[in-house]
Design goal:
215 residues; alpha/beta; 3 domains; three-stranded antiparallel sheet; 52% helix
Length: 215
């Protein structure tokens, strides 16, 4: 009995992309219909399902990120905590270190991570908190991981000082973006709103630079 790609993937408990990768690796050899569609023999699939072959070559990736290179020590501390977590669970892992804002979708490390997930090379992704990936849009990355059967592990380990600093910076970026868009409309109300936002940011900066009063 010949089965479609969807039926074959369901029997083996894998995604369709993994099924196609197995074909490229020579682990499965489907037949082709006159129209060029893949068809799999049910007998072969049932045999594979009852005697699964370990899927080797996929790795655990530790992803660590901080705002800028001035926080390199914090980055190494974050990577070390995640590495220890992997070691405790007996996982062999690689570390991707990244710099940049959580609002930046074009970070070098993030691009590398996404490429490897889409090449089906990542068995497991380990991060301290979902904001380490992106401030907004992590659900899209998690959906991509689900499609390629990449497990996502959140350790919920965080550096509060680093986190607060990043949050403040991200808020400033958001204000700057919206201020630019509001200014383009050149209405009096928008200009007044921009001025108030700039004053709020300036007050926040001055507050950070004030030394605490001696006890």
């Amino acid at each position: 009995m010949l089965l479609s790609v969807e039926e074959a993937a369901k029997i083996l408990g894998i995604s369709k992309s993994t099924l196609r990768r197995w074909e490229a690796e020579g682990r499965l050899k489907p037949e082709r219909t006159p129209g060029g569609h893949r068809r799999y023999r049910s007998e072969e699939l049932m045999l594979m399902a009852s005697h699964p072959v370990p899927d080797r070559g996929r790795v655990t990736i530790v992803y660590a990120r901080v705002l800028n290179r001035d926080q390199k020590d914090t980055l190494e501390r974050q990577a070390m905590m995640l590495s220890e977590f992997c070691t405790q669970h007996g996982w062999t892992y690689e570390v991707i270190r990244d710099f940049g804002s959580g609002l930046d979708y074009d970070r070098t490390g993030l691009r590398e991570l996404l490429r490897r997930i889409m090449r089906n090379e990542v068995e497991r992704l380990v991060i301290a908190h979902k904001d380490r990936l992106l401030r907004f849009g992590t659900e899209l990355v998690f959906s991509l991981c689900e499609e390629f059967q990449t497990e996502v592990v959140l350790t919920n380990q965080s550096d509060e000082i680093c986190y607060d600093e990043e949050l403040t910076q991200d808020v400033r970026e958001i204000i700057t973006i919206f201020a630019a868009r509001l200014y383009s409309s050149r209405s009096r109300q928008n200009k007044e709103l921009i001025e108030r936002l700039n004053e709020a940011v300036q007050d926040d900066r001055e507050g950070e630079n004030v030394d605490p009063a001696p006890e």
